Amino acid sequence: MINIPSVKLGIVAVSRDCFPVQLSKERRKAVTQACANINIDIVEVQTAVENEKDVVKALNELQTAGVNALVVYLGNFGPEGPETILAQKFSGPTMFVAAAEEAEANLIKGRGDAYCGMLNASYNLALRKLVPYIPEYPVGTADELAVMIGDFENIARVIVGLGKLKVFSFGPRPHDFLACNAPIKPLYDLGIEIMENSELDLLESFVKHENDPRIPAIINEMADELKEGNGYPGILPKLAQYELTLLDWMENNLGTSEYAVFANKCWPAFQTQFKFVPCYVNSRLAAKGIPVACETDIYGAVSEYIITCATNMPATLLDINNSVPKDMYANNKAQFAGYELTDLFMGFHCGNTPSCCMKDSAMKYQLIMHRLLEPGTEPDITRGTLEGAIRPGDVSLFRLQSTADCKLRSYIANGEIIDVDPHSFGGIGIFAIQEMGRFYRHVLIGKQYPHHAGVAFKHAGKVLFAVMKMLGVEDVAFNQPRSMMYKDENPFQ
């Protein structure tokens, strides 16, 4: 995929001067080897930091190696001043972890006390107002820490990506979907740039791409992807023209940013002026790592991008759309085993999910728009959706959102898509999330979230939660088990 940063990890061992520095160095080497054993590339900085002069040396090594995500490793107790100055002066995300003691036979000359040193480090980090990634239990053997560093690589990819991200939006955020119309000031606080444009800007650029010599090659790409699902080949030239329009807009307007997402108005005037539905193009760009959120959903686009960076996989944006009928639940008891009816819902959008995330897919037309714009006629301007069942397997729901008073909040819920035919239209799948009914009422409704949810095609809750904490998002909701009541849940139900 394109449009997401490459993370180059570096590890710096720190050592308190009254502990043997060689202990920290040997343990650092072991962690580096453990990372290599599970295919994690990490630069082993040779300077062990004992004082502030060592900080300067280590920073120079990191810069020379092109490291953009730093693991600060307490191989022993560690010097809380220099080690936190190192994190403060480093220009990217940091992680703090500590060495576990290896063997009972080596607890005199070889005891490092890093378990204790993490406590001092945490206090000094707070004094400097730093928020590094600290795993839930940040003390471990080399093999255990390598797994934690693997999580950090995904977390760091999000942090680096957001710091160089630009959102392009086209069209006013829709009045009838006011929930998608949230203040954008908190995104600037995260370092994200935003360029809001008129639909006329997009239309003008689209018209200029008519007869673009690159169009035939894009048409061939689309036909190869759709194969027998190419139900409306006549619409492909316009879709190819539109895809080039968006890609050129991104290239020509990135400015000081490196990555981009789109949040575009997509109906109903879009169809009458552009003469197609943009969903399939949106799906293709999402597959490349360039999410395109519908209905000018700026926070939806950013949420998709966070998922894409966190998983290194394409994401999608779906409506939390409709309930599962009782007869469908009864007729598929085996597939729904372990879930109540209220744990289930259908996630749907017109056709923006990448084909690689679909069980089956085909080019179709947007039924709802067709009813509105072309009643009683053959589909024409409503062609362009990618429809079918979304592939079964693990998923995470995620959204970052601003409240009306500019406070960021988010939710995360791990679940799965069940392999049952939804018997409906659009890009659609049956989602199962434990205690979804209560999560729906007390998080999605209770905290006024919009109907769009970002979907990760794996369980990404651990990484997404850590990212939210590093970004300073205090309210991170999740699907609480029955034994854990929500704040406003009625205890007498």
TrEMBL record:
GO terms for molecular function: L-fucose isomerase activity. One of its GO terms (biological process) is fucose metabolic process. The keyword DNA-binding does not apply. It holds the Pfam family Fucose_iso_C. One of its GO terms (cellular component) is cytoplasm. The keyword Secreted does not apply. Keywords: Carbohydrate metabolism, Isomerase. Residues 348-474 form the L-fucose isomerase C-terminal domain. This is L-fucose isomerase-like protein. It comes from Pelosinus fermentans JBW45.
